[in-house]
From TrEMBL, chains A, B:
ATP binds at G102, D228, G282, K286. It catalyses: isopentenyl phosphate + ATP = isopentenyl diphosphate + ADP. Residues 20-303 form the Aspartate/glutamate/uridylate kinase domain. InterPro entries: AceGlu_kinase-like_sf, Asp/Glu/Uridylate_kinase, Fosfomycin_R_FomA-type. This is Isopentenyl phosphate kinase. Gene3D superfamilies: Acetylglutamate kinase-like (3.40.1160.10).
């Protein structure tokens, strides 16, 4: 990954303050074991929580659906125009949503080796097309569920927005359209995508890298990763005795250590355990990515999607101090100069 | 519309020569009288013709499908990897596809008045979201049908690509990603879209305006408009005695006149007849847009989709001289200095 400052868009318009960037983890919003299937139940709860977190006092207000598509089996589109008459435009604070691929895109990408490049090969070119179809299908589904919940969501593909890489590292990323969409009152919904690579032709740009870049430029108050487990554990959470790490501190050099629960050598143990089962970039990548965001002074919460804990994290309720009954992992920068 | 030169991207990469920009007219690829319904039969024929026109000698080759999505009712994705082994990458000449909205998007846009702007109103903001959901749904469907036909199609939304307007006139349009996609061997598929407007907040950017701008910068050899009638008539084609205009000549000042069939005052008659029934920008807008493209020295063919005539137009077969048995409308620049 190049230094983010080198990929800065030169004329990024002044954006209104961003409250939160949310990552909808692929495992949390799709069915892991079924190809190209959205976890609708989870996604609907996540959308409802996002709405509650985003729109002040939205609990008492009627939801104004923004997906006016024809429903299966119906011949007409219905949108209740009356709903709009007595509604004032609520000031929704700015959120940006980024989602992973889960059971979308992976099959197509791995079968063809899109991440390794080589667009001159028919298989890779076909896989690139197939991967983009799969991830944009998921993106559209997510945008629609959010819109039904009254969130003014706008799908934005990193490929179309001009994001590209060089030897798999982010090379250019035009944030101007993302910033303009936010300033116009929309919630951009980005996603992990197949993109062009200057040196190897093409590759896969992960949602986590996108989040980090967005965080560096949009400087949100906090970042929330919604996953399918309670947070980061000291070993695979399926193992007996796996311990949930409640708080991780990040040093200025990007290294990190476990603050809570306090235990000697916890950091080392995590690294070893994670490395053993996680070759494709799961928890360790997640901690590293999160640490790089925390280093910017932005608190990161890793929390289980569609739980009371995720609602509290999204609402910013745990920002000042972490309640004892809140389950999740906080990753924070520790400025030693202030100690 | 501002002078196109003022919206020029400053650093448009050198693109390989574009053979053809194709407009898939909304009326030709969707069912006019049924909301949000694709005309699958037409779209499949159009895709097959595009493939034949695009890929030299593709007639004898097996189609290598590039949509590897899960089919309804199946639990697995099938892609025959063997197909790729014995295939060399055929040199497909560069095409760009732009489609209209047809029965997608119009309901959402007109109900909310997205074209008139006013994003501070909840109704307009919701309509903007709903319109984008509808047109991107259509875009994804078209990309998938093209990909199934072996065309390496890549959906690119003008909104995400940074296209915006000022008082409804095109203000900025970043063509760099479109150019890069073409250079990487893909076929960009753009569409009429809801976009941001500097002065009024938002509006609708039509596929025809997109085509004109693309033509000005990509300088294709020719442009084909696929519609649901044989071409441009001297009056609404449903009227008795409506005459198909076979050839229209465009002057340097953008004015135009009918060359074939030769008839006195034909031009004037068309204008009057068209204006009477066509308030929303149908044929007259189409001729004006086409005339502006022709003025650049690029031949424009307006032809009925999914016919033998459309295949001949797409293949460039009618370029040197128009065969007598070809039905359609040619719009060409007449450089008087050469007369």
């Amino acid at each position: 990954m190049e230094d983010s400052t080198r990929t800065a868009p030169l004329n990024l318009p002044k954006t209104k303050p961003i409250r939160c960037i949310v990552k909808l983890g692929g495992a949390a919003i799709t069915c892991k074991n079924e190809l190209e299937k959205v976890n609708e139940e989870n996604l609907e709860i996540v959308s409802s929580q996002l709405r509650q977190a985003m729109i002040t006092g939205s609990g008492s207000q009627k939801v104004i659906g923004m997906d006016w598509s024809k429903r299966p089996g119906k011949s007409e589109i219905s949108c209740e125009m009356d709903n709009f008459e007595d509604q004032t435009l609520m000031d929704s604070s700015s959120f940006v949503v980024v989602h992973g691929a889960g059971s979308f895109g992976h099959f197509q990408a791995s079968k063809s080796g899109v991440h390794k490049g080589g667009l001159h090969k028919l298989l890779v070119r076909a896989g690139f097309v197939a991967t983009r179809i799969s991830v944009t299908t998921l993106n559209l589904e997510i945008v629609r569920v959010l819109a039904r919940e009254g969130i003014p969501s706008i799908g934005m593909s990193p490929f179309s927005c001009g994001w590209s890489t060089s030897e798999r590292n982010l090379k250019s990323a035009d944030l101007s359209m993302v910033a303009k969409a936010i300033d116009s009152g929309f919630v951009p919904v980005l996603h992990g995508d197949a993109v062009l690579d200057v040196l190897q032709g093409c590759t896969i740009l992960s949602g986590d890298v996108i989040i980090r870049h967005l965080a560096a430029y949009l400087k949100p108050e906090y970042v929330v990763f919604l996953t399918d487990v309670l947070g980061v554990y000291d070993r695979p959470p399926s193992e007996p005795n796996a311990v949930l790490l409640r708080e991780i501190a990040v040093n200025e050099d990007g290294s990190w250590y476990v603050v809570k629960p306090a235990r000697q050598d916890m950091n080392k143990q995590v690294e070893i355990t994670v490395a053993a089962h996680d070759t494709t970039g799961g928890m360790e990548t997640k901690i590293s990515e999160a640490a790089m965001i925390a280093k910017l002074g932005i608190d990161v919460y890793i929390v289980k999607a569609a739980t009371s804990h995720s609602l509290r994290a999204l609402s910013g309720e745990v920002r000042s101090s972490i309640p004892d009954d809140w389950l999740g992992t906080v990753i924070r920068f520790v400025d030693k100069r202030n100690c």
